[in-house]
Amino acid sequence: MPDRADHARRRGVLPTSGLRHRPTEQSLFGGIYGLVLASALVAALDGTGEDADPGPDALWVLLTALAAGAAHGYAHVIAQRASADGAAAVSRLRLVLAEWPLVAAVLPTVAILLAAVAGWWSEATAADAALLLNTVALFSWGAWAARTAGYGRLSSCRAGGMDMLIGLAIIIADTLIE
User: Fold this and answer.
1) Which own/partner pairs from 113-121 qualify as long-range (CB within 8 Å, at least 24 positions apart)?
2) Count of C-beta atoms within a 10 Å radius of residue 77
3) Are 61 and 130 within 8 A, CB to CB?
4) For residues 134 and 109, is the Cβ–Cβ distance under 8 A?
5) Do the Cβ atoms of 141 and 10 come closer than 8 Å?
6) Could you tell me which residues come within 8 angstroms of residue 135 by beta carbon, excluding any fewer than 6 positions away?
7) Tens-digit pLDDT profile for residues 109-139
8) CA 37, CA 68: separation in Å to the nearest integer?
9) Dihedral pair phi/psi, residue 116, rounded to 5°
10) Is the CB of residue 92 less than 8 Å from the CB of residue 53?
11) How far apart, in whole angstroms, are the C-alpha atoms of residue 117 and residue 67?
12) Which residues fall within 8 angstroms of residue 81, CB to CB, at 6 or more apart?
């Protein structure tokens, strides 16, 4: 007689008990949000007809991620305060600091832009490399999240592909705008 695991396997969902390194919802949210933010910023900062200046671009990507993380964390604090939750200030600080995945997700993009400052490649090549890396990372995060949630390989790839569409939309918009 088939059990729940057999039924779940047939539907493309695997039991999660044997999967390790399950990402938290906060790290997935912050990671994907940070990748999309970094991609959009790189696309916007890499304008044609402008002087190439990847150093300030890298700084803008990092500062924007820090500001977005702080704003998102502070929004949690405001929501907690509005709900009249009597939590201590320390837990509110933790809410703000819990946004670190958003900032961490932009660091590869910052590193790629700083490599252009070092002269390893042009700013345009760095921007293209960052957009490509972030698009692949969006696929990876989406597939990993689905896989750790118990989905099968094909279903996980479909989920990753849907996340990757966000990166592709940014690349297409960047191409059309330039």
Assistant:
1) 113/42, 113/54, 113/55, 113/57, 113/58, 113/61, 114/54, 114/55, 114/58, 116/52, 116/54, 117/54, 117/55, 117/58
2) 17
3) no
4) yes
5) no
6) 39, 164, 167, 168, 170, 171
7) 999 999 999 999 998 899 999 999 999 999 9
8) 9
9) -70, -35
10) no
11) 23
12) 92
Could you give the CA distance from residue 144 to residue 28 in angstroms, rounded to a whole number? 10
d(CA 147, CA 129): 27
| Cα R_g (the chain), whole angstroms | 19
Q: Give the span between the Cα atoms of 131 and 113, in whole angstroms.
A: 11
Q: Whole-prediction pTM value?
A: 0.79
| H helical segments located in the chain | 4-10, 25-45, 54-82, 89-97, 100-117, 123-148, 153-177
pLDDT tens figures, 1-48? 454 444 445 555 544 444 556 667 778 888 899 999 999 999 998 776
